[in-house]
Design brief:
Length: about 180
């Protein structure tokens, strides 16, 4: 009886530990220095790689549109687009990847908005360079939560592409970190 109880307790501890390791992480941009002018989002922030993505304190950014106004707290937001994509011409993109090595993640959800006016945004998922799936979103300047398809599973890259001169403001990204 005592051995059975100890075995049960051991299994329970393992299950609780595994569940804690799989807790959803919400990546917001609260730990970044408050900046009045857009700055490149540092590669490695929150353990992820950020390409062609910027951040700014929306309360200090005079050029920010309605979508930049952070309704949740007074903290920085990440974004793609605007004048930072002028050389691209027809649209803009930002890429979020897991760090090098056998690491992947599952994209769960995001809180996002269009920065200045309604626009279309495509979010595309890849696993080690192989296309997994994509969703097309019509965003306006009111931040709202977007749920990503669970069928994407373990991925290593999210590519976010805006149409035309539109842009995307990212307030929060919910992920699970996974192994290779």
């Amino acid at each position: 009886m005592k051995k059975s109880f100890l075995m049960f307790a051991y299994i329970l501890v393992l299950a609780i530990t595994a569940t804690a390791a799989m807790a959803q992480e919400d990546i917001n941009f609260a730990d970044l220095p408050l900046v009045a002018a857009p700055a490149p989002l540092p590669s490695g922030y929150e353990g992820m790689q950020w390409t062609n993505m910027f951040y700014v304190d929306p309360n200090q950014y005079a050029s920010g549109g309605l979508g930049y106004k952070n309704l949740f707290t007074h903290r920085d937001v990440a974004f793609i687009g605007g004048t930072f994509c002028a050389p691209v011409g027809t649209g803009c993109f930002g890429i979020i990847t897991s760090p090098p090595g056998p690491i992947s993640f599952q994209a769960v959800n995001a809180i996002m908005a269009a920065g200045y006016q309604s626009n279309q945004v495509r979010v595309t998922a890849y696993r080690n360079g192989t296309y997994v799936g994509s969703i097309l979103l019509l965003l306006n300047t009111t931040p709202h939560k977007v749920n990503f398809p669970a069928s994407w599973g373990s991925i290593t890259e999210l590519q976010i592409t805006t149409n035309g001169v539109g842009n995307l403001v990212l307030f929060d990204l919910g992920i699970y970190r996974l192994g290779g």
